[in-house]
């Protein structure tokens, strides 16, 4: 067994200088990564950013070309058999035997791992107690994903890999999966999440890493990333070109025409919102909608990846 030393005792994943090539294509390019015990850590990025390759290396499914990789103190490639008994994995597009029930699936996986989990407790954690004896083929999309989450818990994993766990689900089912992920964290699991849903990452993650072209652009908490890279508060009003012209002359704030109807005013503080609302009222012009918003993680993601493509962010 190849134990890999960790500079911090609470690190469950530590990666230094990871490189993975496919022929002449460098999928992962000198990546550094650290995931702490008990956190939900999300890896985000556009298609082709290197997310899947990175996770497959961490799971011991692909051999790195160079760099150091430690997962739970083990080298995933050389100690894969030992590591796989300690981690839970839910692959993208999870499927199971159509005629099996969630309870039977847990029993089957337990036999593979040689464990004796409390099936009822797992079913309760993932919200499948009422569907424990339904055939997999008769479950809803959200319930099928919950079976995958349940199986990732069978070996009492301290680290769980979730690859796009809510892809294709309706909003209600997606939020049901969010509750399960929060439950997993509450029960002490560390979770590595990949997702294309930026709202999901913002809601669930303690920290996120945004990847592009095989590199991590930034890594921080969602709130810090929004604070650092997001814009000020914005007042959005649907008032057309006349409203745009009026507000542009009446206010000292930055005013933009989003489209033919919507006008966006950037305000530095919450007290300035009242000045904008007053100006809109004093214009005497008709308007339909008025809202106040701040940039989300999705806005920051689009901004950062855009800067990377333009060569402004190294």
Q: What would you say this structure looks like, in words?
A:
A hairpin with a 2-residue loop joins strand 1 and strand 2. This protein is 35% helix and 25% strand. It is an alpha/beta fold and 314 residues long. Mean pLDDT is 91; it is low at 1-6. The protein has two domains: 11-220, 3-Layer(aba) Sandwich (Rossmann fold), CATH 3.40.50.300; 231-294, Alpha-Beta Plaits, CATH 3.30.70.980. The chain is globular and about 75 Å long. The protein has helices spanning 51-58, 80-84, 102-113, 119-125, 141-151, 171-186, 198-204, 222-229, 240-250, 271-283, 297-309, and strands spanning 11-22, 25-36, 40-44, 66-71, 87-90, 159-163, 190-194, 207-212, 215-220, 233-238, 255-257, 262-267, 290-293. The strands form three sheets. The chain has a six-stranded mixed beta sheet, with helices on both faces.
Give a quick precis of the structure.
With 314 residues, the protein is α/β, with parallel strands linked by helices. Helices cover 35% and strands 25% of the residues.
Descriptors for this entry?
single chain; 314 residues; alpha/beta; Rossmann fold; Alpha-Beta Plaits; 2 domains; six-stranded mixed sheet; globular; disordered N terminus
């Amino acid at each position: 067994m190849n134990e890999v030393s960790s500079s911090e005792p609470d690190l469950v994943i530590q990666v230094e200088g990871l490189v993975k090539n496919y022929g002449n294509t460098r999928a992962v390019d000198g990546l550094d990564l650290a995931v702490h015990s008990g956190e939900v850590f999300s890896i985000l990025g556009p298609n082709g950013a290197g997310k899947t390759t990175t996770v497959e290396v961490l799971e011991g499914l692909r051999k790195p070309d160079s760099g150091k990789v430690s997962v739970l103190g083990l080298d995933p490639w050389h100690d894969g058999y030992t590591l796989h008994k300690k981690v839970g994995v839910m692959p993208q597009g999870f499927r199971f035997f159509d005629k099996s029930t969630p309870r039977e699936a847990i029993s089957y996986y337990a036999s593979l791992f040689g464990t004796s989990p409390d099936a009822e407790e797992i079913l309760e954690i993932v919200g499948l107690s009422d569907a424990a004896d339904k055939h997999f083929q008769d479950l809803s999309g959200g319930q099928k994903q919950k079976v995958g989450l349940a199986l990732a818990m069978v070996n009492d994993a301290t680290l769980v890999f979730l690859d796009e766990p809510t892809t294709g689900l309706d909003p209600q089912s997606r939020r049901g999966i969010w509750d399960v992920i929060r439950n997993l964290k509450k029960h002490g699991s560390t979770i590595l999440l990949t997702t294309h849903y930026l709202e999901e990452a913002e809601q669930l993650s303690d920290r996120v890493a945004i990847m592009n072209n095989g590199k991590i652009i930034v890594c921080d908490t969602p709130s810090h990333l929004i604070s650092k890279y997001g814009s000020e508060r914005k007042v959005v009003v649907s008032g057309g070109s006349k409203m745009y012209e009026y507000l542009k002359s009446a206010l000292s704030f930055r005013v933009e025409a989003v489209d033919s109807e919507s006008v966006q005013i950037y305000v530095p503080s919450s007290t300035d919102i009242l000045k904008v609302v007053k100006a809109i009222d004093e214009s005497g012009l008709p308007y339909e909608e008025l809202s106040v918003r701040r940039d989300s993680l999705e806005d920051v993601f689009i901004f950062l990846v855009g800067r990377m493509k333009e060569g402004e962010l190294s």
